[in-house]
Each structure stands twice: as C-alpha cells, then as structure tokens.
Amino acid sequence: MKKTTRVCVIGGGVVGCSVLYHLTKLGWSDVMLVERSELTSGSTWHAAGGFHTLNGDTNMAALQGYTIRLYKELEELTGMSCGLHHVGGVTLADTPERMDMMLAERAKHRFMGLDTEIVTPDEIQKISPITNIEGVIGGLYDPLDGHLDPSGTTHAYAKAARMGGAEIVIHNPVKETNQRADGTWDVVTEKGTIHAEHIVNAGGLWAREVGAMAGVYLPLHPMEHQYLVTEETPEVYERDSELPHVMDPGGESYLRQEGRGICIGFYEQRCDPWAVDGTPQDFGHELLENKLDRISESVEFAFNRFPVLQRAGIKTIINGPFTFAPDGNPLVGPVPGLRNYWSACGVMAGFSQGGGVGLSLAQWMIEGEAERDVHAMDVGRFGDWITPDYTRPKVVENYQRRFSVSYPNEELPVAREWNTTPMYDIWKEQGAVFGAQFGMEVVNYFAADGEADYETPTFRRSNAFEATAREVMAVRNSVGINEVHNFGKYRVTGAGSRAWLDRIMAGRIPKVGRISLTPMLSARGKILGDFTVTCLSEEEFLLTASFGMQAIHMRYFEQNTDNGVSIENISTKRIGFQIAGPKARDVLAACTNADVSHDAFKFMDAKHIDLGGIPALVQRVSYTGDLGYEIYVDANQQVALYETLSKAGAEFNMKPFGMRAMMSLRLDKGFGSWNAEFSPDYLPAETGMDRFTSYDKPADFIGKAAAIAERDAGPTRHLCTFEVDADDTDVGGYEPIWVDGKVVGFCTSGGYSHYAQKSIAFAFIPSDLVDTDFSAKIEILGKMCKATRLDTVLFDLENSRMRS
Ligand SMILES: Cc1cc2nc3c(=O)[nH]c(=O)nc-3n(C[C@H](O)[C@H](O)[C@H](O)COP(=O)(O)OP(=O)(O)OC[C@H]3O[C@@H](n4cnc5c(N)ncnc54)[C@H](O)[C@@H]3O)c2cc1C
Fold it and tell me: What is the mean pLDDT of residues 370-386?
C-alpha cells in the first residue's frame, strides 16, 4: 500500500469506485481507494440494480442520463460485463395530477436530448402485457430504463480506475482522519497511515461515521427497503424479449424481470429509519429481517396491477438499508468549513446517479468546478442549522414520497417551524401561509378571513391566486411591507475589503453610501451569485444574495479569501423589512426626522437612519421594481421596527405581502431570479448580467477572461421575455419553446403578472432568432401555448417610480 497520495477515497461501493474511475479519467492517476472489507460491502451488493433518468431536477436527470450511457463505455474499456439489460420502462399515471407531472417531465426532456414518450393505456398494455391497465390513464415511457448487475458494475469501475493508475486497498478499515496544518490529511488505516492531499468520503452506509472522524455532520440517514423475487413464471420465460420495467407510483412499486421470474420492490408508507444511533461497524454482507407486514397493502395492490404475481411463488425477499439525504438527492462536493474534504455520499440511486456523481466530483476537484449546475446535489445546500433530528424525519418523509407527485408550489409538512424570525407569530395572526427556505419559515402569502390557510399543491394556478393579486396591487397602488429575512447577508470588513470584493465580484464596487448589483463568476465565467453590494465605509461592506446559498457562498468566500479581510455570515442576525410602492417614501418619512426626500436619498443610496429610535440601515432599492426601501436592524429589534413601520403605514393602508406577490412583481420589470435566470449553468451576456459586469475595471476579477471571451464572441442564446397565451397554468421553469415545429430553447421561469394581468415567461432563444420576427409556442403540460416576445417591461418603462 502506498503511503502518500493525491486523493484517498474512503469506501468501495459503486459511488467510491465511480469517483476513483472519474479521477483517473480526468487525469489524476496518483489516487487510491481504501475499503473496509470487500468492494460492494455496503448497500451496493444487495441493490436491485435498476436505473432510470427520471428526476425532478433537470440537471440531476441529465447526470442520470450520463450514468446510464456510461455503462457501455465501461464494458468496452474493461472487457468486463456490467450485466446490462436495456429493456426500457414505463411509469404509470392513475390520476390527472400524476399525468400532469409526466407531461411536465416529458416537456423538459425535449431539450435535454432524452427520448421519453407519453403513452396511452393501450400502448402500455402492448409494452407490458402483464400490467392490468384498469384505472391507468397514461404513462411515460423511457427507453433508457433498465437494470444491471451491481457487483459486476462496481468491479468494472474499479478495474477501469486501476487501468488509469489508481490503487485499491481492500480489508483495510479507516480508523481516523486527521488534518495537518497545511490542509492535507493523515488517513489512519488498519494497514498504516496514508498522507493524502484530499479525502473523499464515499462511506455510504457508514458515511456518518466516516464524517464524524473529521468532525463533520453529513445530513443523511439509512432506511430499510424491501424487494421480492418470484419463482420462474411462464409469462416471463415464454416471451421472446425481456419484460420492460414498470413503475407504478399508485402502488408505490417498481417491477422488472429477474432471470425467469419477476422482481418487485416497494417504497412503503410504514417505513423504518435504520441504525438511528449509527451504523454498526460489524455490519457486513448481511440482510435485515423481512418485514412483510409493512408491505402487505402494497403487495395486495400489486397483485391487482400485475395479476401474474398471484400465481408466482415468492423465491427471495431482500430487506437492506441504504442512505438518503433530507430531499433525496446526493450530498456531493467540498464540505463547507473544511479544506480538501469532499463528500460523495447520500446516493440513494447509485446505479442511476453514481456515474454523474463521480464525473461531477472529479471535475470539481480537478478543474475547480463542475461542468453543469450541481446545486441539487451540492452538500452545501444545507446549512449548519441542520441536525439529525431534522434529517431523520425528513428522510422518512422523502422515502414515503418517493412515488408521490411533486408539485412546483408544494411546501412539505415535516420539520417545519425549524427556524423562524421574531415576526412569525405576528404574521401568523394576520393569516400568513408559510413556506420553508433553507430551514427558515418564509411567508408565501396572507389568506384573508374565510380563505384556506393552506395552499393546495398543483401544477396549475393555486388557491393563492386571489391573495397574491391583492398583495401585488397593494404594492402598486400604495405601499406593501415584506420581510427581508430570506436574503443571505454577509458583512465584509477590513482594510483589504475593497480589493477583495473587486477581485471576487465581476461588477463595480460602489462608493461609500452607495449600492451596486453584481454577478459573482467562476473561473469559467459561470454565474455563482447575483449580489447586492453596499459600501458602508472603505472598510465595511454588506453583501446580500439568495438565502439558500449561504453555506455555498461562505464556502466560496473562504476558499478565495485574502489577508486583511474578514467575512461574517449575518443572515439571521440582521433582518428587517422592505417597504415598496408609491407611498413607501411617505411611510419612511413618517418614522424619522432624517431627510428622505429624493434629493437627499437617491435610488441605490444606503444610509444609517434612526426609525422610531431604532438604528437601521436603509437601502433604497427594491426587487418589486417600485419605489422601495430595504431596512435592516438587529434581529432583536425587528418587532419594534415593525410596530414603528406599521403605525406609520396605517395612514397609507400599508399591507403585508409574501413571496408569491414578490415573484409576480419582479416579472413586471423582467428581473431575473436566482436558480432560475441566474445559476452556474449560465454566463453573464446571455442572461443580461453583462449590464452589471465591469469588463473594463482594472481588477483581474475571477472569471474576467471567460466573461470577456463570451462578450466578444457574442452569446449563442439570449434570455427574452414572453407573454404566454396560457389558460390556468403558467410557466414554472424548463418548459420547451418551439419555433417552426422545433424546440429552440427553454424557459427559465415565469408566472402570472397580476399587475399587467398577463402570463409571463423568461426563456432562452438562439441569438440568431433575437432580431427576427418569429412565432413561438411554449409547451405547458402538453399544451402548445402561443408565446409573444415582449420588447419592453410591463411596469414603469421610464423607471420613474423606482428612481424618482
Ligand atoms: C434493497 C435495496 C435495493 C436497491 N435498489 C436499487 C436500484 O434498483 N437502483 C439503484 O440505483 N439503487 C438501488 N439501491 C441503492 C444503492 O444500493 C445505493 O444507492 C448504492 O449502493 C450506494 O453506494 P455507495 O457506494 O454510496 O455506498 P455503499 O454501497 O454503502 O458503500 C460504502 C462502502 O464504504 C465502505 N466503508 C465504510 N466505512 C469505511 C471505513 N471506515 N473504511 C473503509 N471503508 C469503509 C463500506 O464497507 C462500503 O463498501 C438499493 C438499495 C437497497 C438496500
């Protein structure tokens, strides 16, 4: 065993072996993997081996497509068999809501190059004759669905990695991981200590324990999972071709052929978290006791859906554990707060996702960033607020919802009120309907007396529509108040602050007392954040960005820090409100003796002002596109500030508004939003972020060369605004846009502008179309809706409200 290495991967399941292979594939050969027992000794050996592309997150779906296509390459490279069965598969829809979900998925797949198809019940019957189609209204067919041999595949990854120079040491448990002062690691194993520049935790079932060796809590939990294999069945072995997969979400089951019989697995409601106090170190190639009572209802349902099962005796029952993160997606990437420590765990579908996880992580480690936006699986998407008591119930919820319809407006019920601001009870009394963002309760809208205090999950316009309209018009006609706690906020101090910001941000850094908007770019020019920068003094700046990006942004700041600068995350320490609308200035003036007239307090100014005796930072800026102010105070003064503002606002009939109204208001001005128009998938010029990029500033900001190259070559696509001829469903994101019978682009987000009373979509179209007359259609839930390009914003064209 070698004693020094560039990377030590801990864990030889399918994920660890894929990471190892991808590191060698991308050029790092001085890498090794250390496995406690034999390869596949965790969840991997007893997996059912199914793979599919379906995933609610578009980039995850694309990475699943990559994983599936990789197996052939692996077989050719190694000469080993992965035991591939590319049989295709169909997911059944037995309710209109599930059909909506499939139509939405199918639409997304059109520009992802995935050839899924919507199929009728009769077609399903032909594809899978053992399926009883009673109650089925349609389905989604995916030709890429299939299954493989889990052990063969893992060993193929391992062989491919060895061929690329990697070393694999088995029967060698890692006992400790100790970081040296220079950021490298001593990996203490049974066979000696390895000095590694980087560690990858691919400990699967033991990822929690491996993480704890470095003082890291990784939010994942193992769940028990059961599948059955039947005896030989004539309906299977008398066929000329293999049975396709059938996913029956209504029955919470997935089914496929296994040899001459059938394999069927269940995501049952009565499910069990496993190893609550930690995975035993001596758990090995063993299975858990069968718990058939837990799946009896699902089995009964399956007997009706697949009558052949009634005649086929059960040969084997498998009950094994595997791990989930709270939202079911993997935990991948650099662990916030630690240098050179990478996570590749929480992978619940190792055979659909393992390849994509390995590729993305290897790109991240070797090239500094992954090729596509991997936010959905970034280990940094959870913050330091997360604990096992949050993770476990969310994992149970996720397991139970594995086959549930996921709606775009859905707020899940488990582990709520985890974090609240001091305003929580006050808002609740006013009818607030909350959602959760990054563990924080955030008001979505305010229900009036007699209205339901719960937003119905739907793909169409929801029961929040009227309330949202009221809140939007309150802002546009007079003034509204909204909490600004759902911004991530950072205090940057020190003599080197300006120079650091100039390097880290692509835009202009403002003068004292002023505010600027700027993208933060990666070395390849990808958008890592859309920031508001406020200069409070030459040695103190305030940054605001998306609340959910806190851990990711802090991780990036720490990775790129400079001497003479300190950065503090004050997201929940400094909170407050925004007031917006034509009467916002009157409300502000009524709270202070300070001069807040236009001449004294201009658009993009920031001032320290006492409001009702409370020291506040007031910024003249508003995401509503209206006259507006963001007001920040210490968290313990938020309620007092609210009382001051609401007293002053009473005269102007000031109304509270929530995030649904905010997201409608921003449409009127064409303002992009994080994770929709702005994400690491996009570059500045194609999104319109070039307006805020200072290509000519002297500082050599990160991403400068790439941003200049994009600008000079001219972007290949442009983000444009469309009015959509929609009926009861607005664009949510990733719907394809069609021109002349071809998909030419996709939507980034959209919604209903209550002010303009129009359905709006933001979409990328090829640059050569931008200056032409074209007639476009956007596919929403399978319906082609006419889309008309808008050349101007819908509200306040002259910016007279925002800037007056
Ligand atoms: C019943 C069942 C059915 C499933 N069906 C499917 C399916 O159809 N399709 C699908 O995609 N997925 C399926 N899965 C899930 C799949 O098994 C997992 O996603 C996958 O195996 C995760 O692989 P991994 O490498 O992350 O973890 P693991 O397989 O758990 O590997 C972790 C490895 O780390 C090693 N290790 C741990 N601690 C140490 C240490 N201290 N030192 C050295 N080594 C260590 C372990 O020995 C182990 O080999 C199923 C799972 C179960 C239980």
Answer: 96
Instruction: Indicate whether residue 506 lines ligand 1 (CB < 6 A).
Output: no
pLDDT at 114: 83
| SS3 state at 440 | strand
Choose the residue to mutate in 43, 52, 153 for probing ligand 1, maximizing ligand atoms within 8 Å of C-beta: 43
Q: What's phi and psi for 254, nearest 5 deg?
A: -130, 145
Among 611, 633, 627, 607, smallest CA distance to 619 is for: 607
Instruction: Select from 322, 331, 377, 379 the residue to mutate for testing ligand 1; criterion: most ligand atoms less than 8 Å from CB.
Output: 322
* Average pLDDT score over residue span 784-800: 95
Please say if the pLDDT value at position 272 is more than 90. no
Classified as helix, coil or strand, 178 is strand
Establish whether residue 188 lines the binding site of ligand 1, counting it when its CB lies within 6 angstroms of any ligand atom.
no
3-class state of residue 671 by DSSP? coil
* Counts of helices then strands in the chain (DSSP H, E): 22, 37
Does the beta carbon of 490 lie inside 6 Å of ligand 1? Answer: no
* Distance in angstroms (rounded) separating the CA atoms of residues 679 and 692: 15
Any ligand 1 atom below 6 A from CB of 348: yes
- Residue 767 pLDDT more than 90? yes
Query: With a 6 A CB cut-off, is 55 part of the ligand 1 pocket?
Result: no
Alpha-carbon gap, residue 600 to 596, rounded angstroms: 6
Q: Give the pLDDT band of residue 286 (cuts 50, 70, 90).
A: confident
**Is 759 close to ligand 1, i.e. is its CB under 6 Å away?**
no
Atom of ligand 1 nearest to the CA of 44: 21
Distance 364 CA to ligand 1 centre (A): 22
Which residue type, as a one-letter code, is found at position 164? Answer: G
521 pairs with which residues across the strands?
527
Other beta carbons less than 10 A from residue 153's beta carbon = 31
Distance of alpha carbon 393 from alpha carbon 681, whole angstroms: 32
Contacts of 219 (CB under 8 A, 6+ apart): 325, 326, 331, 346, 382, 386, 388, 390, 391
Q: What angle do CA 313, 315, 320 make, to 5 degrees?
A: 130
| CB-based contacts of 698, cutoff 8 Å, min separation 6 | none
Ranking 3-12, 19-28, 478-487, 501-510 by mean pLDDT, the lowest is 478-487
The average pLDDT across 128-156 equals 96
Residue 213 confidence (pLDDT) above 90: yes
221: tokens are: 């939990």
- Residue 13, token pair as written in the block: 């399941």
In contact, 714 and 705? CB cutoff 8 Å: no
Those residues whose C-beta lies under 8 Å from the C-beta of residue 277, and which sit 6 or more positions away, are: none
- Identify the CA nearest to 7 among candidates 383, 432, 314, 361: 361
| Contact indicator for 789, 721 with CB cutoff of 8 Å | yes
More confident residue, 272 or 397: 397
Q: With cut-offs at 50, 70 and 90, classify the pLDDT of residue 375.
A: very high
Assess whether the C-beta atom of 152 lies below 6 angstroms from ligand 1. no
CB 302 near ligand 1, within 6 Å: no
What pLDDT sits at residue 56?
79
Residue 411 · residue 436 · CB < 8 Å: yes
Tokens 């002010």 correspond to what residue?
A: 755
pLDDT (tens digit per residue) in 566-611: 999 999 999 999 999 999 999 999 999 999 999 999 999 999 999 9
Binding site membership of 12 for ligand 1 (Cβ less than 6 Å): yes
**Rounded mean pLDDT, 460-484:** 97
Interatomic CA distance for residues 17 and 150, integer angstroms: 12
**Residues across the chain:** 804
Write down the pLDDT at residue 228: 96
Predicted local confidence at residue 254, as pLDDT = 97
Instruction: Provide the terminal-to-terminal Cα distance of the chain, rounded to the nearest Å.
Output: 71
Query: How far apart, in whole angstroms, are the C-alpha atoms of residue 685 and residue 142?
Result: 35
Mean pLDDT of 179-189: 98
